[in-house]
Structure of Tetratricopeptide repeat protein:
Amino acid sequence: MLKRALIVCSCFSLMACAGQNAAVYYDAAAVSAKQPGIETALRTYDSTVKKSVHSQHYYGARGDIFFAYKDYGSAVNEYTKALRNADSAELHMKRAQAYMKLGFYPDAAYDFGMAAESGGELKYRAYAGRAKAYIELGKYAEALKDIDRAKSGADTSAELEKAMAEIFFKTADYAKAKEHVQRALASDPDKGELYFLRGRIFYKTKDANQALSDYERAVAMQPENTAAKYELARVLSTCPVSMYRDGQRAVRISQELFSTDPSADNAMILAASYAETGDFDKASDILKNAADKEKDLVKQDDMRVYLKAYQEKRTINTW
């Protein structure tokens, strides 16, 4: 609950210059985010402030509450209502952040662009945000241009170094990726996502020991980071270097992932984990059930390869 309150307070900081009237709404949203559930939070908020369908602040603060409870689709809807009442760089920035969480990168890039056009200090953060959206879209040249624009303003050095590292990671220039993530860590050593990124870089260069160390640290710092847990389980179950494999631990981690998200990827890593323990029958059953539900033809082919190996009592070890 404290974390949700901090998220809303962070969102409120974007509106700090909007005046006393705005503060009433955003202060109420911050207090409401301390409630145990979103329904209670919204009731608390609506009982505290005056509802006004013509106020961008009323809807903007509601968007912050939804964002804090990770209901990003509803957050987008509320920010959109707010923007209909008053065009605002801060609201475009918030909606862009929600779009990023949803994976709607073209929409995020648009909103970051609208925020950047504001001409204020916010534009530098907007450029940094749009660079991230461009990276996800594979538009690396555009991302690099926005990173250069962002560098001339706000104090976002760690954020920008991370963006540079992601670009070089995705273009397979792992030496430069490592260089930039190291710089980011020097500026912000308490960010779990940076250790996760560095772990991925290490694993791509076949340094399993360092990768494991960084994945462990990322998970310890961000227990909600399912991507880090997935990669940790993948190393423990499929690493070609046997000394780094631990099937029993991989099973525990991948079971947790699969129980909350029974996706094809999580099914495959759970099956690989059981195979590493020697339980090939269990691995085969998990993969058969997942393959029957999978519609993606590429993943179906991957599953067939893994299934054949497990039926032959073989593990698959790959970087």
